[in-house]
Amino acid sequence: MSQAKFSTETAGKVITCRAAIAWTSNAPLSIEEVEVDPPKAGEVRIKVISSGICGSDNHILDGTFKTPLPAILGHEGAGIVESIGEDVNSVKPGDKVLLIALPQCRKCDSCLHAKGNCCLKEDIFSPFGLMLDGTTRFTCKGRKVHNILGTSTFTEYTVMHEISVVKIDDDAPMENVCILACGFPTGYGAAVNAAQVTPGSTCVVFGLGGVGSAVVLGCKAAGASRIIGIDINERKFEKAKALGVTDCLNPQKFKKPIQQVIMEMTEFGADFTFEAIGTIDTMVAALESCNMSYGVCVIIGVAPAKSQLSFDPMKLLSGRTLKGSLIGEYKIRDDIPLLVDNYMKKKIDVDSMITHKLPFVKINKGFELLRSGKCIRCILLF
Ligand code: PAD
Ligand code: ZN
Ligand code: ZN
Fold it and tell me: Residue 372: is its pLDDT beyond 80?
């Protein structure tokens, strides 16, 4: 086994490094020099090696997902532990880790439940952008800078709680494995865990970006025989077909609502539908596209702040199931290392989702690629 290289020279000291700061929404990120404090008790300081850019980061920048700014965004990272605070037992300096926005404290109601993964220590539903003790480890130009969902990966060094840090195999390929910190498990797990897609079934995936592509891979792995992919950006269709989508539809090309088109294509509606975009309209369309009696609709997309989902409750009375899924219902510290092992054994195809790699300093170009739909997943390398 190869041993990761690390230095303990910086342990206990403030590290000065580069980070991309989001000073306000709807503006480019700016690469700045930041000071990163040493980790406190229960915390881990990590040298970031790679980070994906997720649709949720873009929702923060366009103001639809509210979290305090200025902040260092990014929540899909892979790195090496630089130093640990007191009482940290599950990782040590030099360990290879994934940096994940959803913790697993193993003590709260959700963590102790066999099915729950929405750890009560998470910072997702009303993000405050600070560590659990109410402070931040980042300073830029004398100003305190928030973290994002306890993660912050758009920086050369970050500090996270141990409960959100997942130790992975020493031989994991660090340039690509970051995708297993958010996009891949979110989509794949929505299919195999949340929906429990069955062999021979028909699935519909709304949104063929990074997360939707991983849903497609999950549906395919579960044996779905028909996978209908929906996107307004037809650039996505070629890749989607390569991943396993059997029919690609652009809703803007039809005069009638897309749910009606799907009902006609599938006769009685799909067995499983997934919303991986984050708009109310597409959530309703996904619900109405699944079979009225036994269809299952899984909401993955993050809807704009304060929006409300509204639909005729009779749509559920007939037997449909509507559910949501966070990071694919994985209990991150228990389950994600196994996904990494399966990736390394080539049992799951994560690499095909990665279409671009850029040096970290070109982060704004990475966001441009995401917004224009030219990429599925773009990875930043540090
Ligand atoms: P992405 O930008 O890569 O993909 C979104 C796709 O949706 C793009 O291909 C768009 O072209 C397409 N699209 C946009 N509007 C429409 C529309 N009206 N109709 C059809 N297609 C459309 O983002 P992503 O894949 O990284 O993220 C997708 C969503 O998943 C986003 O809302 C993000 O916040 C959410 C997410 N959820 C979790 C979770 O745990 N539930 C985790 C990570 C991301
Ligand atoms: Zn994400
Ligand atoms: Zn918990």
Answer: yes
Q: Determine the pLDDT at residue 7.
A: 60
Its pTM stands at 0.96
User: Which residue out of 50, 51, 54, 201 is catalytically annotated?
Assistant: 54
Decide whether any atom of ligand 1 lies within 6 Å of the 232 Cβ.
Answer: yes
- 141 and 37 in a single domain? The answer is yes
366 CB near ligand 1 (under 6 Å)? no
Q: Are residues 25 and 56 in the same domain?
A: yes
Kindly state whether residues 249 and 114 are assigned to the same domain.
no
Q: Provide the residue range defining the domain that includes 48.
A: 3-176+350-381
Q: Name the band, by pLDDT with cuts 50, 70 and 90, for residue 126.
A: confident
Q: Above 70 in pLDDT, residue 361?
A: yes
3-state secondary structure of 225: coil
Sheet holding 226-230, edge to edge: 247-249, 226-230, 202-206, 272-275, 296-299, 321-324
Q: Which residues pair with 32 in a beta bridge?
A: 19
356 catalytic residue (yes or no): no
The bound ligand whose nearest atom lies closest to the alpha carbon of 279 is 1
**Which listed residue (50, 51, 75, 164) is catalytic?**
75
67 lines ligand 1 (CB under 6 A): no
Ligand 2: centre distance to CA 214 (Å): 12
Residues 256 and 138 placed together within one structural domain of the fold: no
Ligand 1 pocket, residue 301 CB under 6 Å: yes
| Residue nearest atom 1 of ligand 1, based on CA coordinates | 209
CB crowding 248-286: b at 16 or more within 10 Å, else e: bbebeeeeeebbebbbebbeebbbbbbbbbbbbebbbbb
- Compute the residue count for the chain: 382
